[in-house]
């Protein structure tokens, strides 16, 4: 202890502090005469309070991700005494033991399951100041804490129960122990390396990757020492190199068994062969390699020290992998199976990400750390900063000089390694983000050390403010320029807004730029340069924090961030609370019987953990399913094989569909597409990009595509909208789950009661029940399939003047035309975005001349074809108007369309909460609606119908009403719809009128409702089923000459009903 104190007292920083009579920095000023307050520790304390708050605040609100639920459930099993058995599929055992301990201390919940990652996130943030001040510098260490605080990647995954944040924590411990041993040579740091490695190898298999990066760097240090001092065995780096090689050599058993003998020698051996012969073979190889490693350590190092190191490593490793000696099989899965399984997974390439994935992801979120660390840090390290002697008087490497070089090595080599690895996932980015952060912090620290703070305070403040405002004005002009939004381009509201913005920004830039230039001349280059750098640091830090906040607290359960990738939808926790409430009302506890299949098991295995009567039926439903109160079927649609197997056992149950999980649209993969520019059908003087459908990952092809897209203003606008506002051009991908509730229980859940009323006469009745009739279709058109005349989840239908039926065959991304007798006539369209191609069309209409109009929903446009399906024109692009009546002619997911007696096309611009009106050539004619629930306002309008007198009827879905408007778009009246409760992605009702009657579809109520034009119910028909008087998701409607056509989407057909004139 005394030696440590003397060592600390002789450090240069402590020497200066004792030598100088006046504090050299405000970080060391005396606050009281009796006590000296170290302001650096105060700043550290404030930063750590912020770290703790951001890691723990609102930790349990977000639904557990699929993988999180796996980790939570198996930790919970261990916590309640059901044990744990290591399985390489779910990586190492540490997470499960540590989470079980958290449950034991604080109970099990969505909050406590993430306490472990949050604690490690706090520790990672604190480590630079607590342990690495000598290598990063005091200001650099504080900068490291601050950058870790605002890091989007580390913040998000510190609030996420995955292995990577734990692995990153052990990486920090190993780095500290290695460099502390290199600096001091003390045995405790040597053994601390063993502790860190044992926990790392018990956490996740990327321990192999980090070891493969660290070992060559240490070997380079050894080579450098040898070139200068010819002292090999005395080199501390050599001690670690030999020990790591000897210790980890037997861990290559899987590589030797599977790759060398299994593949190269053609013996077909598999490292995951857990038969007695396979286990014996693997353990034999492990033992031989261990003896070789021990022999190497004995010859090249010190066998006693190696054995001590190995004993400490194996004690931790074996205790965790065998769950404290209760699972002997963990010896095999830990030593051999872990690497063996992930060698097999390399070729699987889960996620299918391109080689440039981390280039996009890291620069999207960690641009501050990368820019400062890679560029400024490298320049400072090799060209600006004097290095001094690399070796000390004992021929040992000087850690302060080599540590930033290691950070650069760590960053570059980890980026290369993870980019080569088959599986590329956003959570792995933390392993590249941390070295970038530390390298940037080291650079910032050296810059701050050279700032003349007195000059900044005295002269530089006003310059800094002027430069900041000028910078923001210049960034505004750059933003508009990149979007190709130039001034003086017209007199529309949007054009005038841009012009005024340009003039204001130019004026501000001119004034503040001139002021900054004058002040620069007064204060000199040094002070002005320091102020410029400080302003840039503030701007970068503020923007980085914004993206961290968005990812973790705004979009945490909505995958609008590339960082999130995929996420369980909020519907899951909402349904869970409903189930708990229903069970409490029925049983006084959680004893209700809930059955679920393999598609819904994750995350519901976690959310139903306290339901003692839950039943898992996997892929094999049976008669006992009818005894369940609620049945959950995941990754499904109504006509899916999963539900078809289960529905015979629950025929009268009430079905509702919800989002199970959703994911980020991976448009960045389009950089690999082969594309060509073709004339824009709306404007031949312009071109649009057409994908040919072929992918090429060649770097030159990808770079050429990137430049090709960058030249186009529309793509630049889309990119900027995402970069700044996180607006997505494409909708989120998703998969759903269905909840089936026993009919007699539906009245217990208020939100479903109205739907069930017609199915259970014991429930409360309403006016719809009194009007219920049985009406059978007179004709059925279509059946499931992809051949001509077959349909796949059709969405909309329209009658042509000659009686032909035009169907939006959405699942097949085409339009099909049937003759009046129901026979197939022709079809046109394929999946794509070129003219004449479709991406899930949801609307169709036919004019008096037979021209066909299609709402090409997820291409965000309207396309017009002649009566034979030949392309004529198209109009529309994607834009999110935020529910405002702006930007005419753009769409967000247009759905229902109709042609009025005024020969205009009416379009339900669903996502933008409005109806747009166009001339039949695509010229804009008007719009009405706008987001809201007041008269005339709309919320998710999904369809529009126009009567012969010009009255416009709108299906105002999420407001659960029909609204009527005059031909001049003035609000006339409204009536409520007892239905349309769900906001699921398929609950998109349609509306139709013959001038005297109004029909609506109720998709998840499996019925059609007929009103008079005042909103009085006339009749209701339909139930769930496949007969001609039943529906499975009724959607589009079309009327002609006494016949109402109804799209029965999930039965993949169109039903024609005789409803009279």
UniProtKB/TrEMBL annotation:
PROSITE patterns on file: NHL
Domain Glycosyltransferase RgtA/B/C/D-like: 91-250
Sequence intervals crossing the membrane: 39-57, 89-106, 113-132, 138-158, 165-182, 207-226, 238-262, 282-301, 313-343, 355-382, 402-421, 427-448, 460-480, 500-520, 532-550
NHL repeats by residue range: 780-821, 825-868, 882-921, 928-968
Superkingdom to which the source organism belongs: Bacteria
InterPro entries: 6-blade_b-propeller_TolB-like (IPR011042), CHP03663 (IPR019962), NHL_repeat (IPR001258), RgtA/B/C-like (IPR038731)
Keywords linked to the UniProt accession: Membrane, Repeat, Transmembrane, Transmembrane helix
Classification via SUPFAM superfamilies: NHL repeat (SSF101898)
Keyword Repeat on entry: yes
PANTHER family assigned to the protein according to its UniProt record, in alphabetical order: GLYCOSYL TRANSFERASE FAMILY 39_83 DOMAIN-CONTAINING PROTEIN, GLYCOSYL TRANSFERASE, FAMILY 39
NCBIfam families (UniProt xref): flippase activity-associated protein Agl23
Name the record gives this protein: Glycosyltransferase RgtA/B/C/D-like domain-containing protein
Species the sequence originates in: Ardenticatena maritima
